[in-house]
Design a protein that fits this description.
heterodimer, A: about 80 residues, mainly alpha, F1FO ATP Synthase, elongated, B: mainly alpha, 2 strands
Chain lengths: ~80, ~250
């Protein structure tokens, strides 16, 4: 039992940053879902009202930038975990 | 031979080129200087050659320049009515710096924006613009905005989030390109090291540069327009007491 615990601890110490980086990369999930929904809605809006395409594009890009930010935070944290 | 991650680690963080005392100049700063010099030179040359020979029937280059300037001026005009003379040039300048600072990667230098301090400087510029214009427009009434203390945190989070958005997306593009260069460099097969990066660079460098500069410009415009809104509460009450009927004109 003790052997197992020491093994687990050693594994966590060795692999901790890598595991953390992997978990941090999961932020991509939320960002992906959000960007997908935003793009889908923009396509719907454009189909419904094609003359508003300029405004829709502007808003879509802003929204995508906000959604992308969370993914970027996750990426930054995983880069910091791996390389620092 | 270095392993992949060690090789990448060398490239992720900026290297100090010059060090004297507390001042350390890394390679990002140097490419930043190059970008600024190039932008100033381009502006000077354009001013002396193209703009002097402005025509009523525009050529392609003139159309592009006019579109570029009027694009930023127009969006500044829409968002920050009175202060568009200040915000239009600022957003154009910041966007040009970000765009060229990333595109310098194509010449093999480290992008100027791939350093937290460069992004922080740009974000602090926007932060100063937001709050100076907010206080200039609304005077002491702007302080009412801070009656709710959560707004202080919201305002302080703006430059931080701008910094990390810019830095993260540029750094991620750079890391992916470096990874591709490292992986592709080991394949000696028939010019693949030349072709694949050339195909992938527009996606990870060009696209990021244009999108991020546009996003930075429009975000700072949005925040400024939010800051210079006049707080409506008192005016509404007074108007309602004076004449309750014309609700439509108040809005």
């Amino acid at each position: 039992m003790e052997f197992l615990i020491t093994m687990m601890v050693n594994l966590l110490v060795d692999m901790g940053p890598a595991i953390g980086a992997g978990i941090a990369a999961l932020t991509g999930l939320g960002a992906g879902v959000g960007m997908g929904i935003a793009t889908g809605k923009a396509v719907e809006a454009t189909a419904r009202q094609p003359e508003a395409v300029g405004k829709i594009r502007t808003m879509l890009l802003l929204g995508l930038a906000f959604a992308e930010t969370t993914a970027i935070y996750g990426l930054l944290i995983s880069i910091l975990l791996i390389f620092m | 031979m270095l392993s992949l991650s060690e090789e990448l680690q060398e490239k992720v963080f900026p290297k100090n080129v010059i060090e004297f005392g507390p001042f350390a100049v890394n390679d990002s700063v140097i490419s930043g200087f190059i970008v600024v010099a190039a932008l100033l030179l381009a502006a000077l040359i354009l001013r002396l050659t193209v703009i002097r020979r402005w025509k009523t029937t525009p050529t392609g280059g003139q159309m592009f320049l006019e579109w570029l300037v009027s694009f930023f001026d127009k969006s500044a005009d829409e968002m920050t009515e009175k202060y568009s003379g200040l915000m239009g040039p600022y957003t154009l300048g910041a966007a040009a710096y970000i765009c060229c600072g990333v595109l310098i990667e194509l010449f093999g230098l480290r992008p100027a924006i791939a350093d937290v301090c460069a992004c922080l400087a740009l974000a602090l510029c926007s932060f100063l613009f937001i709050h100076t214009l907010g206080f200039v427009k609304n005077k002491y009434r702007r302080l009412l905005h801070y009656v709710n203390p959560i707004n202080i945190i919201t305002d302080l989070a703006v430059p931080v989030s701008m910094t990390f958005r810019l830095f993260g997306s540029i750094l991620s593009g750079m890391v992916i390109m470096d990874l591709i260069y490292i992986v592709v460099g080991k394949i000696w097969y028939l010019g693949i090291p030349v072709v694949i990066p050339a195909v992938l660079t527009p996606i990870f460098t060009l696209f990021h540069a244009l999108i991020q500069s546009y996003v930075f410009a429009s975000l700072s415009l949005t925040f400024v327009s939010e800051a210079i809104e006049t707080p409506p509460r008192k005016e509404k009450r007074r108007k309602r007491k004076a004449d309750p009927s014309p609700v439509q004109s108040a809005q």
